């Protein structure tokens, strides 16, 4: 995907999303996932934490797996190491979310191809908070 198309897709994702399910969201305020999710919450997005090790983050009930989330969400933001993407992708394709956003440093070209073949629009290796600050200003 060229840079212009990627920018356009990021804008679409940010404009059409009201709720973000965050896989790997920590309840520790010093963690990057927490800081970025909190910033996105402050921008008006609802955050749904997906992490089997926490009960609640940012005032929202946490879910063990993405497939456990029954309420609607448009975007899945991934804060897990790349080695976990293949397993996660099998769960992600079973959701109604149109968008998958892998944070900076999270990449797997096979998973990207798999998700796009299953009608997911994917951004890989980008920080959603930085993109929001640049694109939605």
TrEMBL record:
Protein name from the UniProt record: Predicted CoA-binding protein
PANTHER family: COA-BINDING DOMAIN-CONTAINING PROTEIN (PTHR33303:SF2), CYTOPLASMIC PROTEIN-RELATED (PTHR33303)
Pfam families assigned: CoA_binding_2
SUPFAM superfamilies cross-referenced by the UniProt entry: NAD(P)-binding Rossmann-fold domains
Domain CoA-binding as annotated: residue spans: 13-106
Domain of life: Bacteria
